[in-house]
Amino acid sequence: MPSYDAIRLEKGLYAQKEGFTGALEALDPSPQYKGTPLEGLDAYQRQLKRFDIRAGGPGSDTVEKFFQTADSAALFPEYVSRAVRRGMEQADILPRITAAVTTIDGLDYRSITSSPTQDEKELKIVAEGASIPETSVRTQENLVRLRKRGRMLVASYEAIRFQRLDLFTVTLRQIGAAIARAQLRDAVEVLVGGDGNGNAAETADTAVAGTLTYADIVGFWNLFDPYELNALIAAPDVAVKILNIAEFKDAAAGFRFQSTGGQITPLGADMMKSPAVAAGTLVGLDKNCALEMVKAGDIVTEYDKLIDRQLERAAITCTAGFAKIFKDAARVLSV
Q: Which of 13, 49, 66, 258 has minimal CB crowding within 10 Å?
């Protein structure tokens, strides 16, 4: 097994099925560094150390440090991908509303569903010799609609070569945040309108149009049986109305909101505010069984252009879609 500082880096590593870091790990496994000063670093981070590239902190290097050799230049696309991924994670609320994440190699994917009747949801006593009640699981009629979301990185190498990596990372994180917000809009669209398989969410109305009361929230919560209302995605105007409901203005909730900006948890549900939800709308769901996220690979960067310093019009994309698992596990409240 070659040492980490003797590995030849090339564009072909990005074409590997396991990705650039996965390919590096196959050549330079992390477990072999247990008990050494390099323990805790993955294969990519060891390559940064090899070329003395500091990608973060006040003493970070400039962009041109990646291009000091042909080998170190091959690390630049992965740096871009990691910075974008970090931005997605910081702005992403999808982990708080998705029950499962499925990664596929192609672009065609058909999810599964089960639509039991109220009678079938009850686990009845099975008499001796009697047949056991069945739960039918089938594939959906329509494929999951995958959408490619991304941004074009438009900058000449001359314009950014002397920029500190710490500052450049901020820009890349914003690209990731933009992708995460776009994917959230896709997720909300599926939760509300369904995924094309006749599973749009049912909509309930408040007692008085334009007014949201504690009784409306309790009534909405009561609709979810046998599922659990444990996540709420509120349009900004609806979030304001919830925060102003007298029953949610107790001292503990008020202190948390005023000191940290953390949202209250109506009836124990995790509440998120997002403009991805239409004005006057509150989306409620059981995060454990309502939504599946389908990803066609990870973040994709045009590594050829980035390695060759052709940053102008270099695309950074992520392809994903969403499927509804159980129709009644998500509902909409119209205010």
A: 258
Q: Residue 217 belongs to what domain range?
A: 195-294+323-334
Are 259 and 42 in contact by the 8 Å Cβ rule? The answer is no
226 preceded by cis ω (within 30°)? Answer: yes
Domain count, the chain: 2
Strands (DSSP E) found in 210-296:
231-234, 270-273, 281-285, 291-296
Do residues 237 and 160 both lie within one domain? no
The answer to whether residues 220 and 200 belong to one domain is yes
Q: Using CA atoms, how far apart are residues 266 and 229, in angstroms rounded to an integer?
A: 10
Asked whether residue 224 falls in the same domain as residue 91, the answer is no
283, 324 contact by CB (below 8 A): no
Are 39 and 176 within one domain?
Answer: yes
Greatest Cα pair distance, the chain, in angstroms, is 80
238 to 58, 158, 210: CA distances (angstroms): 41, 47, 10
